[in-house]
Amino acid sequence: MWPFLWIVFLGCACGIVFALWLIKYIFSLDTGTEAMRDVNSRINEGAWAFIRRQYSTIAITAIVVAIIIGFLIGGLSSKAELDMLNVTAFGLGWRTAVAFLVGGLCSCVSGIVGMWVAVKSNVRCAAASHRSLNEALTVALRGGAVSGFLIVTLSLLGVTVMFIAYGGLSNPHIAPHLTVAFGFGASMVALFAQLGGGIYTKAADMGADLAGKVEAGIPEDDPRNAAVIADQVGDNVGDCAGRGADLFESTAAENIGAMIIGASLYTLSVKSGVKPEVAVGWVLFPLVVRAIGIIASLIGVISVRSKKEFEPPMDILNRGYYVALVLSVIGMVLTCYFMFAEMCSGWYYLMGAGIIGILTSVVVIYITQYYTESRYLPTRRIAESAKTGPATVMVTGLSVGFETIMPTAIVISVALLLTYYFGVKAGLDLPWWISGAYGTAIATMGMLMTCPFILAEDTFGPITDNANGINEFTKAGENIRRVTDHLDAAGNTTKALTKGYAMVSAGLAGFLLFQAYFDRVLLLTGKEGELFNINLVIPEVLIGGILAIMMVFLFSAWGLRSVGEAASKIIEEVRRQIKEDPGILAGTSRPNYARAVDITTRAALRGMVAPGLLPVLLPVAIGIFFAIFKVTGINAPYAVGSFLMVGTFAAILLASFMNNGGGAWDNAKKYIEDGNLKDDLGNVIPKHSFAHAAAVTGDTVGDPLKDTVGPSLHIVAKLIATVTLVLCPLWL
User: Fold this and answer.
1) pTM of the predicted protein model
2) Burial class (CB in 10 A: 0-12, 13-18, 19+), 391
């Protein structure tokens, strides 16, 4: 099976070479007029200023945390654990700290690269929109693909290198346990990056909307709006850098979780007589199938073409996605056959689990499109409610958001049930609960196969948003604005469907990660292969679940409060500048954009600390508390396991409400701005009308839900898993 590692390195090489080719393509394009370049330089300057300050804060925090966990893990690990891992206490400590720092560093690089390419792409997308929609769409997608392919490739390469460096070639059943801190480092950095960037972008966006659109009656991207540059910067530091770090940690954490379950299968298979060089396929499969997904997504991106001018952008993008999807299915079939057929007579059941994972991603995308695209009833219902004011917009939007929890929960439940069943039916000579969990792990890897394409679509959103803003700022004509308006609306949908994709993959990964947690606890306590039962009527276990739900809502409250406080400062600043300098609205003087950028930066960095530390510290505190104060004699791992399970699904379902509800509010506003809403007499309801102002209010409330707290909750769901995976020796 070891030759399969060459497929992993081949996939990584293809991803890196393709990303470099895309960068060369993007940089060769026209950057538009001098006015466009001037706006872009301001966005670039503000984005880098924020990134430098944000990642300086994150770096200091990460180094301190790495030192602490290195000492804790090295100092508190038992002799049995050290013997099992075949390392000294010092060796375990420094390996954990290094893995944490490498994961965090790769996550930082992923976010920064995503932002850098997006800033370079948006002005070129704006310039391309002066020529055709198809050219602008191609620029935006390929600009987003740089981020998508580099992030996924870095994630896969990082996990593979850490696996090999920590003895994976000689001890494949041990190495995944030594690399778990890689996922922890990536998750913690991603949470701070997403949360800080999300606070920044939505505070600036709300300031531009409320103080500019609603109060002053000027567009949010109008050069007279003091928050306009901060808003454009926010799209890059939140939607690009933040989401890049988010998707990096998602793929890394889920990969490591699948490998830990594979390590259990490896050990049990070898004990049952399977050759080690064959059994290692259980551990290597997650790496191999991800590499094949990179190649499939690469071909999908290249195949994106428009058949006619002004064809709906989502139709164009979906065709490329279907190409990637079909190739992923073929790759899944072949990989399962060559890696599992020798070990498992029912290998086709495992293949079926993988295909279910791939198809689940398709179902999720269609559900998200239905609830967030203006072509469908939910978004149009919100737009219609705007005729009667902001209160009905809010109520209707809330109902749409809450309703989306139902299909999300059903999809996750069906996928879990089927893939677990297929794992059990695969005929493995192993305990049924381990076989079933591996079926779900394969499904999760199947969902991640098209991750590069999905992430390219996600970054497509902020690139087109910035391009639209640049066109408005430089007073491009209505025909040109129509092109970027179409792309911007599609970008809202692609960002929403990426979050839906991340949510459901987090649901499957949640099961896989707490199965990995149970396997790690059993391994460290010498009970590998046993069934880990959690009884919910035991007080410690029940309390763990209650505190998990509390943590999700408290995190959301702190995140939203940070956005609100930062937005208030921006609104006051925009009002102050307009009041003190009448020439701003007259167009004879320029606002102080740098002042708004600085205010937003400082507010975002302050606001990310408390909610960012909550999901890191709380599960550790629960584990240590119940390890010291035992009420019923039940071990602390059960209380933490309950916290992990309940917290994961509470975070995912609340994120579903926030992401889809916020996306629907946003596109309802755009539906009105595109002139699609009519009164009872058939007259078009225009911008700056009562209904439009009501829709802007709904969009403003939805913004921090869908772009700050919602996507941060995806990370929370996986962060609590990686924290418990790394630090569980503290309460064993």
Assistant:
1) 0.83
2) exposed
